[in-house]
Amino acid sequence: LVPSLLHEARRIIQNMDPSELLNPDEDGDTLLHIYAAKGMRESVWAMAERTASLGGLNSKEHNGKTPLLVAVTANQAPVVWDLICFGADVRATDFKGQNPLHLAAKYGYTEILQVIKASKCKINLETRNFEGLTALHCAVKGHNELLKTHRNSMAQVQDTLDCISVLLHMGSSVFTQDIKNNNSVLHLAVQEANLVLVRYFLQYITDRLPEFINMKAHGNTALHMAAGLHHQENQEEIIRLLLFYGADPSVRNLENDQPAHLLPQGEAGARMKLLLKRGRNANPITPRV
């Protein structure tokens, strides 16, 4: 905060009528929404001082976003901190059921997550949005998407991986499954042949690893999904990783198929079928960090 700018912002806002402070524009935005989106920290501070007692901190614009959610979406970490300190509701959700954690995870805003963590506010890490996803699911899906569309922007990919790390350190559970498809974070990573995340989660888990790696999503384990990754360059390495960490190749899905039944035809399929037959002892690999 710049003292001179804060003094000027306070002077301007003190001279405004309360209705002018709280009345929304045609998009449902109050002045606090606008200041938050633009990162005008001194104006946000002065506005919050004036309107906190009037209920202005948690008013919603046309997408259901409070000023805090707007600040998160705009990646304005200092403003997020200030609004939380003034009492903004960190559990507020927009019209898609997204809370600050969902939005920060979705966009790969690590600093926002760190601010929320530092605030020590009570927020349920397993809260699902209206798609049935937790913040950790959102971060994994964001990482999947970035790997597909922004391979040349590894900084963005790393930001999303950092978000996953922060959420895990905050206490997010890797065992939570989404509502729609029963996918765990491992299922989501395997489905997109995301070798980076598959390796990351398998190395992260130190407790209940057999349970984690053999969880089912509508009958399919991660190994079933990996076997179905036809024409994906990472397929064989993902299968090797899963086997190395204890995936069970004998498990059958709802169609009574084992992973070996889902492999592609041809030489590559035959090679992977042999891996599955050998199980955990198939050409042990040295996992890379």
UniProtKB/TrEMBL annotation:
<feature type="repeat" description="ANK">
    <location>
        <begin position="218"/>
        <end position="254"/>
    </location>
</feature>
<feature type="repeat" description="ANK">
    <location>
        <begin position="63"/>
        <end position="95"/>
    </location>
</feature>
<dbReference type="GO" id="GO:0010468">
    <property type="term" value="P:regulation of gene expression"/>
</dbReference>
<protein>
    <submittedName>
        <fullName>NF-kappa-B inhibitor delta-like protein</fullName>
    </submittedName>
</protein>
<keyword id="KW-0040">ANK repeat</keyword>
<dbReference type="InterPro" id="IPR036770">
    <property type="entry name" value="Ankyrin_rpt-contain_sf"/>
</dbReference>
<dbReference type="Pfam" id="PF12796">
    <property type="entry name" value="Ank_2"/>
</dbReference>
<keyword id="KW-0677">Repeat</keyword>
<dbReference type="InterPro" id="IPR002110">
    <property type="entry name" value="Ankyrin_rpt"/>
</dbReference>
<feature type="repeat" description="ANK">
    <location>
        <begin position="96"/>
        <end position="128"/>
    </location>
</feature>
<dbReference type="GO" id="GO:0005634">
    <property type="term" value="C:nucleus"/>
</dbReference>
